[in-house]
Amino acid sequence: MTSHSNTWALVSIPAIAALIGYITNYIAVRMIFRPHKPTRLMGITFHGLVPKRQKQIAASLGAMIERDLFSSHDIQQALQSSETAEEASAFLSEQVELFAQRMVSQNPMIGAFLQGPLLGQIKQLLQSQMAERFPQFMERVVERVEHRLDVSAIVQTKIEAFDLSKLESLIYEISARELKAIEILGGVLGFLVGLIQVGIMLLPAWG
Length: 207
Description:
The chain is mostly helical and 207 residues long. The chain has one domain. It is built from ten helices and two strands; from the N terminus they run H-E-E-H-H-H-H-H-H-H-H-H. It has a two-stranded antiparallel ribbon with strand order 1-2. The longest helix is centred in the middle third of the chain and has 32 residues. It starts with a helix and ends with a helix.
């Protein structure tokens, strides 16, 4: 039969272990982001995981996004799609019409000369020429986009420059339940470990 003090000790072990497990996981979750800058304490340097690896994370995310999610090839397909061609053709026709109206209004002599069917023929000629040249123009645009656009580098630069406090707030806001569950799980596991310790301590008495 154990004394009152021994009973209290056996009861307190799981509780203390649960508290230690909870606090440990709480600190571990916070250390994903904090401290933002390297901090030395008792000769040990502490630095949040994300701040410490921000450049590596940015490079990996940039490469992954360009490889699996978004690339210059996607832009090429969008620029060369039939919808883009139709929109560009409509825009070019509109610009030709505006140009013709401006020329006629600003130059009365030209306006007197360009009357009726002749003006229509000139506009149609300009529109057809622009439509004929448009595919070549788009090819040049796509070539320049592919040559100059580095999706991976753009994403990497953006992530490296992203404010860590905003990123931290965003992650905690999105994953609040999951992160809290990790903290609670630490307490639960600590409590179970405490119970196992109590069981080990009581084995001689049960024997």
